[in-house]
UniProtKB/TrEMBL annotation:
Organism in which the protein naturally occurs: Roseateles toxinivorans
Residue ranges that the Swiss-Prot or TrEMBL entry lists as coiled coil: none
Protein name: Cytochrome c peroxidase
Lineage top rank: taxon: Bacteria
Annotated binding of heme c 2, by residue: 271, 274-275
């Protein structure tokens, strides 16, 4: 076919597609275009990234929207000096070139943890952080790993001295003058080794409070940076927008197998029950019978985190928070006595999920096929009660999930269409 004939064919196809969209054939079955009911179209439309609400303000961090705070936070995020061995930074487990996680089954800092590192994109939309929700803000979440013995392994006094030595001007421009650290030990903190804890207890209460406030400010700067990280649109978003617009040509962006997977996702597979909304997460905690790494000591998940977040000195109600008590509704009224929280873990976003194996809270599954097969199998939980097992559902409408081998593959393939770029915005 010559060049003129090729252009003519393309022009005719464009006209046909435009006419088909205009008369409603976009809901028919030509060229692989799926028929969707009105309810299905509404579900698909609800998952579009452009339906994501603006980032909610965190009243406990009054610095979160300051560009200077985000700039300082980004530098602290990447600084390996803020660790016991001078080799671990936040970016070690949340690497920008690895979807802001590390690709490991278990996080590895100065030691090895017991759970996976979660990606950071869109985290500012969630009221609870970590797999178990033991932190109630992005800034308090940033502080946890810094003092954790197997993550950064450092201590508050050391971090205050590092800020004074390397970031004094930037810190003081944001938070005011650093306290006098001349009499503060180089290494002291409430969560360190025996010597560090003893040195912390020997400090006057006022000095401990000053160092802890410097530490809190460090977390607030890192949170200001993490708040800028988000997801960009995927092929699924382009397809969903085309469905909404009755754009027949635009609906060609997904393959026939991906479309089968999408139908399973919003229907028979029941994925949308928990993976809902533009971030494809309900931000809640669920026990879905994921096998623990050690069956003799299964992870308690959310149930064990409730006391931690309530007793956290850096929570929304604490003295280092910028919020008033009336602004801490999530913490004040969180569910604390639901037996379904036993061994329950946070629903992760499925955006970019195909780019960050392995999967689940401790990397129990190496592929998306294995993940989907687990839900189809619906095994009983080792600890607590699985929502997927017979009689264990938290959702009265949920029925047993029965998927064929082909359907499992179709669903897994569809999940690959949820991948898009990572966006770093300005605060």
């Amino acid at each position: 076919m010559d060049a003129i004939g090729s252009r003519l064919c393309r022009s005719l196809l464009a006209v046909v597609l435009a006419v088909a969209g205009g008369i409603g054939i976009a809901e028919g079955a030509i060229w692989g275009i799926e028929r969707w009911t009105a309810d299905e179209r509404e579900l698909i439309a609800s998952l579009r990234l452009n339906q994501l609400a603006p980032l909610p303000a965190d009243p406990s961090n009054r610095f979160e929207q300051l560009p200077a705070a985000a700039e300082l936070g980004k530098r602290l995020f990447n600084d390996v000096r803020f660790s016991r061995n001078q080799a671990v930074s936040c970016a070690s487990c949340h690497a920008p070139d690895k979807q802001f996680q590390d690709g490991r089954a278990l996080g590895k800092g100065v030691g090895t943890g017991t759970r996976r590192a979660m990606p950071l994109m869109g985290a500012a939309h969630s009221p609870w952080l970590f797999w178990d929700g033991r932190k109630d803000s992005l800034w308090s979440q940033a502080l946890g790993p810094l003092e954790d013995a197997v993550e950064h392994g450092g201590n508050r006094a050391r971090y205050a001295h590092l800020l004074q030595a390397h970031y004094r001007a930037e810190y003081e421009a944001l938070f005011g003058a650093l306290p006098d650290l001349a009499r503060v030990p180089q290494d002291a903190g409430p969560l360190g080794d025996a010597g560090e804890r003893a040195a912390w207890e020997a400090m006057p209460p006022a000095a401990r409070e000053q160092v802890s406030r410097v530490f809190a400010h460090m977390g607030k700067a890192i949170a200001a940076y993490e708040r800028t990280l988000g997801y960009g649109p995927s092929r699924f978003d382009r397809y969903a927008q085309a469905v909404v617009a009755n754009d027949a040509g635009g609906q060609q962006v997904l393959t026939s197998q991906e479309l089968k997977g999408l139908r399973l996702f919003i229907g028979k597979g029941q994925c949308i029950t928990c993976h809902s909304g533009p971030l494809l997460s309900d931000q809640h905690f669920h026990n879905t019978g994921v096998p623990p790494l050690d069956r003799s000591r299964p992870d308690a998940g959310r149930a064990a985190a409730i006391a931690k977040v309530q007793g956290d000195e850096f929570n929304c109600l604490g003295s280092f928070s910028d919020a008033g008590p009336q602004q801490c509704q999530e913490l004040r009224f969180m569910v604390t006595d639901d037996p379904k929280l036993e061994a329950a873990f946070k629903t992760p976003s499925l955006r970019n999920v195909a780019l960050r194996p392995p999967y689940m809270h401790a990397g129990q599954f190496t592929s998306l096929d294995e993940v989907v097969a687990h839900y189809a199998k619906s095994p009983p939980a080792v600890r607590g009660t699985s929502e997927l097992a017979s009689g264990g559902s938290a959702h009265a409408e949920r029925k047993p999930i029965r998927l064929s081998v082909q359907e499992i593959q179709d669903l897994a393939v569809f999940l690959g269409a949820l991948s898009g770029p990572i966006i770093e915005s300005r605060p």
